[in-house]
Each structure stands twice: as C-alpha cells, then as structure tokens.
Amino acid sequence: MQKKLPLSFYRRDVHTVARELLGKIFIKKEKNGILSGKIVEVEAYDGRIDRAAHSYNGKTKRNEVMFLGGGLLYVYFTYGMHYCANVVTGGEGDGCAVLIRALEPLEGIDRMAMNRFGKTAIGEREKLSLTNGPAKFCKAFDIDKNYNGLLLTEDIIFIVEGDNLIPGEIVASKRIGIKKSADLEWRYFIKNNRYVSRL
DNA sequence: CCACGGATTGGCT
DNA sequence: GCCAATCCGTGGA
Questions:
Q1: For A119-133, what is each residue's pLDDT tens digit?
Q2: pLDDT (tens digit, 9 = 90+) per residue, A45-81?
C-alpha cells in the first residue's frame, strides 16, 4: 500500500491541489475491506473570491471545517437526500476546498454496488454510474456527515499516489450545477475517462 | 418564525 | 429534456 499524502500536500493553492488530485487514489478502510477509486473529476472552491463557495459568506456551523486548514474532509448534506465530499486545502481561515465529483472504482466494487443499488450483480451501465457524480460517490463509499472534519492523514479515509498525468490529459471547464460565479473554469477532469460525470 | 433554495439524482415524457 | 424528491442551513421579517 502506498504512503498517504502528507498534510503539506493539502496546504497549498486550491487549484494546484485540485489538478494534482486527478489520477490519485481515494481510499476508505472499513472492517470488511477496502474501498478505493481513482479520482477523475474535481472542482475548486475558494471562499475568498468565489461566490459559489459555501465559505463565501464567512464561517457557519455547516461550513466551519472549510476554515480549519488543508487536509480535512468536508462533507455536506444537500437537496434533502445527498451528501458530497470535499478535500479542504490551503491554510487555516482560507475557506478553500476541492469537491470530489467522480472516481473510477478500483477495489470493493461489490460493496459499492450494494451501497448504490442494493445488489452486487451489476451490468456495465451500472458499473459506470457507481461513482460518476459527487453524491453517487459518497453513496457508494458510504460517506455521510459522520465523516465531516475527518483528518485525511488518519487511517480511515486517505489519498495515495496513483497515475502521473501530463498536463494535456487534464481538461478545465465551468463548474456544474451552480448559479453564482458560474463562469469560472474551476472544474478539472481527466480527458477521455469514462467515469467523468459529464462532458 | 417562516420561506427559500441548493456544489444532485433518477424517473418520466 | 424536465421535474419531483426531501431536509435543513441560512437569511429576512
């Protein structure tokens, strides 16, 4: 097993971290085994200048984890039924985070299938939609508010080295599903990867 | 106190 | 492509 990314990886510029997270392996250790996947799509949020960021209007109970500094997991609940997970970046007080939008499933696919569809026998179409969206990935990995504020250098949820991408493999585009600061091209994804949520 | 709407998804037309 | 589902944080009265 590869070494966990250190705190210093996360405590940098949010766009640098967002781009470098692509190709890396997101891992959750459970009693029954490991769930893992390659990160293929992310979005950057910067509360200092970005009106779409939850942290834009300052610290609240919901977003406080975003202000605690790089290396924490920020999990929020939305639309009355979905969780989404972010990696906090930068320094304390910055209010920056990278939303994990999609993974390519690697280990524990049967358990992801159970979490998403309630069965292990899935076809190609279902496999492709296991983790190709921020709430789908949280459902597959059974990530909810209990994981909010978790330190990514602990032995529960963490990220390790994976594929080394060349700049030409990374595409930047507008972020999905937001109305404010909608023109910023702060979504990054791996070109031609089948598990990206949308083109 | 109350109303609004959201970093989404899946089902139906 | 359109829209309902379903909570709760947030902001205004």
A1: 999 999 999 999 999
A2: 999 999 999 999 999 999 999 999 999 999 999 999 9
Q: Which nucleotides of B are covered by protein (CB under 7 A)?
A: 6-10
What's the pLDDT band for A4 if we cut at 50, 70, 90?
A: very high
Cα Dmax for chain A: 45
Query: Chain centroid to CA A151: how far?
Result: 14
Query: What is the domain class of A7-190 according to CATH?
Result: alpha beta
CB within 7 A of strand B: which residues qualify?
A 43, 45, 52-55, 66, 74, 78-82, 84, 86, 97, 99, 116, 129, 133-137, 175-179, 197
Closest CA to A176 of A17, A31, A43: A43
Asked if A199 CB < 7 A from strand C, the reply is no
For residues A89, A90, A96 and A102, what is the CA-based torsion angle, rounded to 10 degrees?
-20
Residues present in chain A in total: 199
Q: Which residue is nearest to nucleotide C6 (CA to C1')?
A: A80
